[in-house]
Amino acid sequence: MSHNFEYDKKLDNIVKKTIDVIDNSKEQIYEILEKTRNEYYDLENEINDLKVRIKAAIKDVEVLERKEKRSKLKLAYVSKQFNSMTEEAIKEAYDEAKEIQIELILKRREEKDLILRRNELERKLLEYRSIVEKAEKLSTQIGVALEYLTGDLTKMHMQFEELKDKQLLNIQIIEAQEEERKRIAREIHDGPAQAIANVLLKAELCEKLINKDVEKSKEELKNLKDIAQGSLKEVRKIIYDLRPSTLDDLGLIPAVSRYVTNFIKETGINVELSVFSDYKRLNPEIEITCYRVIQEALTNIYKHSKANNAIVKLEFGDCFISIIIKDDGVGFNSDTYENGFGLLGMRERVQILNGKFEVNSSLNEGTQIYVSIPLGGDKSNDQRYDS
Length: 387
Description:
Blueprint: H1 2-80, H2 87-149, H3 153-166, H4 171-209, H5 214-242, H6 245-249, H7 252-267, E1 270-276, H8 284-305, E2 309-316, E3 320-327, H9 343-352, E4 356-361, E5 367-374
Parallel strand pairs: 1-2
Antiparallel strand pairs: 2-3, 3-5, 4-5
Helix pairs in contact: 1-2, 2-4, 4-5, 4-9, 7-8, 8-9
């Protein structure tokens, strides 16, 4: 017994030291990632500006080329009428042709320089994109490692033994976790990260305007404040979606009820939540799975279904919990999209807990998702109620 205690203590020390090293590395990678992203956005803006200038230069060259042709025709005419033309007219024709020719040479050089600069920046942009993708992948991998290492070590040891015995540590679990993290990374990239980049641009604009146009700078500062407030709201939403505190503190039904209320406010879709039988607290693994399935299903309804109404029903049995989620949307061919719309991730979550997951949908007839999860591993008492 003492041997096992000493072993666990040593393992804890090793894990804690490893966590510190990985955590510091994660911060450094995040700083590099953010700096590279900002430089990437700056390059994109510069390239877009160059494209506009190149387009304008090409048009200018075309105009000058037409002018040059006309001037050459004029010179040819002057040459034929040389004896009858005044010296001033001849000089004017030659000067005009020479001026146009010089202007055309300079404009062609400008066009060539702009194209070379654009090509150079586009190559650089590809390099930055590669760095960003590698840093995002590395950050995700470090996040997975930290999540495992910072968990309850005793529980982790027991889980590893159980996973070894039952061979449940398979590639699908890892892929599901990675997909979840990619989704979160996309939300942060498309929301707060883009907004922060916009904040930087607005701040630079305010710096330039502050001494030139006070009223305009005040207007830009107000826009800056609105962007910052929106970013803060998005960050808070992402944090809550990662792990709603209501779920840990009060349980599944209060957490789902709050999510449904917010969902109705944000989307305008009417959702009716019904609970059958007496509500009771469940194992954390079951509660978070049920919550995530409902969350993902409602998100799909908002993004894809064009529905006006939805129903969420939960039934607590002695040996199972069942969930039905229905909508009156456009539906889809469930055979074709069996692995689409996040259905694979929901299915894997439920199957990890030995549960059932079914999707019934057809075009223009809405969609229904049915989930049943055994509470103690016994699926013999699984029942299904009419919707």
